[in-house]
Design a protein that fits this description.
The chain is of the alpha+beta class. It is built from 19 helices and 20 strands. It has a domain of 226 residues: Glutamine Phosphoribosylpyrophosphate, subunit 1, domain 1, CATH 3.60.20. The longest helix has 21 residues.
């Protein structure tokens, strides 16, 4: 079973499975294919996280291929003369890009856990880039929305806007010949082509010409890392997710631990009491995120304390059933007292029982909008995910602290939350989502919908969602939640705002040894397909 946000990539993954490949093989082929067919988030110039469960050994592991700050990055590089964050420089300039990790991460996954060659995994992406594919209405719309940022890049305009400044019309064939050449270089010479060969040289030359920071040394020194996942137990289910530098896994398990203290099914899905408890829980977790989370290679992150049941009980005791606690009165907790918006996710489960839950990103749709000349590779703008000025929110309104300040070679904090859930050591659920700061809460609600509210995976995916991230002190609700609910929540003191769709989960669940997949209709164009 394969689920992703883009139909062509789903079919690529399915083809690999049908030919006898495993979930890792299919995921790597999809990751490269999405760089062609879903350029708003699929990428070679970004980074992400892959969660893998190996059927043969029962091991679950995490591959961290998050981007890093260039070695020439400085703590105050985005602070202007007035002492404020220069958002244009942080989000839309040559300085916005971290050192990409996608090629290293996908290659490492295939090398260690796959069964096919890199050449075979890349073949579908090369074909799609060279021969082209039909442009969807959604792709055209996303290109029009990103045009202003992409106008600064000759390469981006030549690839996506060569019809007199217009993107291809729906149904037209989009060919990306420079990207095809880059993919062929990687197919022939491995990830070294990107990090030390022809592609690396083109990136370094472009950076030097434009005054950017990424050098050949940054690229040659980049390494993807295999980490131990964070794990917890929720009502008898084993939950695995990404450790830092993702904040997603830590705070997902932290929130599940808090919510385990309440009879959520008895409250009823999206009832006033249910949403109130959920919102207050989210605020407590996001407050902790602002202080305690960062790159574990640079500072100590109290992961085990944050995900402990005992700490969760203390936090649960802070929740007032009758009224909301304003965010200004909620600070980060002290767990030690006990002793980017565009991203994409895909999920694969194979016939052997191997599982992949992968989330990767360029941060904004099409990243910085800048493409490296001659490569067709869009660059990320992940440097904005650092706390350029601790206490000042980033593009997603997230507050950050000292542990996520900019430093050379450091990985920026992320909200990406790929998840695998087991029951009695057997696969039960895998999911993940794009959505910036809303990723963690989107994934949380799918898990609650399936486990607590006994929904099938389609209903669990389509059910209306809420989101609160501590600051700004606003409870965001999808409009489907209903006016009556928002009115009752306002009586409890919540500042409710009806918002655009929250997240886009891509999920697979196993019920009675049968796999069921669901792609989120909040973003059209996805596909769940089994064989």
């Amino acid at each position: 079973m394969v689920v992703s946000e883009e139909q062509v990539a789903t079919l690529v993954g399915l083809s690999v499975l049908r030919q006898g490949g495993n979930a890792i093989d299919a995921s790597v082929a999809m990751g490269f294919a999405l760089a062609v067919t879903y350029p708003r988030a699929g990428n070679l110039g970004g980074g992400g996280f892959m969660l893998v469960h190996l059927a043969k050994t029962g091991e679950t592991l995490a591959i961290d291929y998050r981007e890093k700050a260039p070695l020439r990055a400085t703590r105050d590089m985005f602070i202007n003369q007035a002492g404020e964050v220069d958002m244009e420089k942080a989000q839309k300039s040559i300085y916005s890009s971290g050192v990409p990790g996608t090629v290293a991460g996908l290659s490492l996954a295939l090398q260690k856990y796959g069964t096919i060659s890199l050449e075979k995994a890349l073949a579908p992406a090369i074909r799609l880039a060279e021969e082209g594919f039909e442009v969807s209405a959604e792709l055209r719309k996303s290109l029009l929305n990103a045009k202003e940022r992409m106008e600064k890049s000759t390469e981006s305009m030549e690839v996506f806007f060569k019809n007199k400044g217009e993107p291809p019309k729906e149904g037209e064939i989009l060919r990306q010949r420079n990207l095809a050449r880059s993919l062929k270089e990687i197919s022939k010479n491995g990830p070294e082509a990107f990090y030390g060969g022809a592609i690396a040289k083109k990136i370094a030359v472009y950076m030097k010409k434009e005054g950017g920071l990424i050098t050949e040394r940054d690229l040659t020194s980049y390494k993807a890392v295999i980490r131990k996942p964070v794990s917890g137990n929720y009502r008898g289910y084993e939950v695995y997710s990404m450790p830092p530098p993702s904040s997603g896994g830590v705070h997902l398990i932290q929130m599940l631990n808090i919510l385990e203290n309440y009879p959520l099914r008895q409250y009823g899905h999206n009832s006033t009491r249910y949403v109130h408890i959920l919102s207050e829980t989210m605020k407590l977790a996001y407050a902790d995120r602002s202080k305690h989370l960062g790159d574990p290679d640079f500072s100590t992150v109290p992961t085990q304390q944050l995900i402990s049941k005992r700490y969760a009980k203390r936090l649960a005791n802070r929740i007032n059933f009758e009224k909301t606690t304003p965010s200004k009165y909620i600070g980060p907790g002290d767990p030690l007292a006990e002793s980017g918006t565009d991203t994409t996710h895909f999920t694969v489960v194979d016939r052997y029982g191997n599982i992949v839950s992968n989330t990767y990103t360029l941060n904004f749709p099409y990243g910085s909008g800048l493409s490296v000349p001659g490569t067709g590779i869009l660059l990320n703008n992940e440097m904005d995910d650092f706390s350029a000025k601790p206490g000042t929110p980033n593009a997603y309104g997230l507050m950050g602290g000292e542990k996520n300040s900019i430093a050379p070679g450091k990985r920026m904090l992320s909200s990406m939350t790929p998840v695998i859930v087991l029951k009695d050591k057997q696969f039960f659920l895998a999911t993940g989502s794009p959505g910036g700061s809303r990723i963690i809460t989107s994934v949380l609600q799918v898990i609650l919908n399936v486990i607590d509210h006994k929904m099938n995976i389609r209903d669990a995916t389509s059910a209306s969602r809420i989101h609160h991230q501590w600051f700004p002190d606003i409870l965001y609700m999808e409009k489907e939640a209903g006016k009556n609910l928002s009115g009752q929540l306002r009586k409890k003191g919540h500042k409710v705002k009806i918002t655009t769709p929250i997240g886009s989960t891509q999920s697979i669940v196993m019920i009675n040894k049968l796999l069921y997949g669901a792609t989120d209709s909040r973003r059209p164009g996805g596909m769940a397909q089994g064989h």
